[in-house]
Fold:
Amino acid sequence: MPADVIATPLPACPDIDQAFAAAWPVRLGDTDGDDRLRLDAVARYLQDIGFDHLDAVEDGDTHQAWIVRRTIIDVYEPIVFGDRVRLRRWADALSNRWCDMRIQLRGERGGHIEAAAFLIHIDPVAGRPARMSDAFMAPMLASTTEHRLRWRAALTELDEPEAEAAPFPLRVADVDRLGHVNNAVYWEAVEEALAAHPDRHRLPYRAIVEHAGPVMIGDKVVLRTSARPGALRIQLEVDGSARALASVEPLAGGPAH
Structure:
């Protein structure tokens, strides 16, 4: 992975007290057999605070359609069942059609996760990237000096014919209101791969999912996994075409403050 595509650690918030904040309890359906908050649950939390954030800003009601291009989840200390998690969300960089949003998750018992999501604003009728309004962008412009954000991929497709392959059946409940398989479902695939390679859960670690194309209900999805020495690589394919790329690898150093 090119080292200059994603910062390590993820950038800190210039003023964390000004970030949008929310909190809720970690419930049973969010955790695994070790009480750990699963990565797919973290992905849902990122979606939930995103929509709560829309309710709190001007023109949020006209900016309801978004596509996630990449999500990064850096796990420093696990958040666990029964904990109460506090989330803070702010813009780290943006252009006028997309943005990179940072989210910090902290549990009252010491759990700590840092995340980032590259989001593209979509015209729900035309189905293509759409400019955000000036009023909507104003608070984001105030929280970052990076106003010319461009997309750069961090992951490449697997080129290992011997990579493990297994079917990844979809369910009706996996599809969201846009007709696509919801972003959190891709993280369920990452959890499946981690279950087969539990040594990759050593803290701290960074997990990334990048989307290369949509997955629709009815698609026959194949989950490919490669346990490389430095990283666990994961790919979701439909008809031999990569639709999502993912990795889990050790994370050097601690979070930015």
Remarks:
- The longest strand covers residues 66-77.
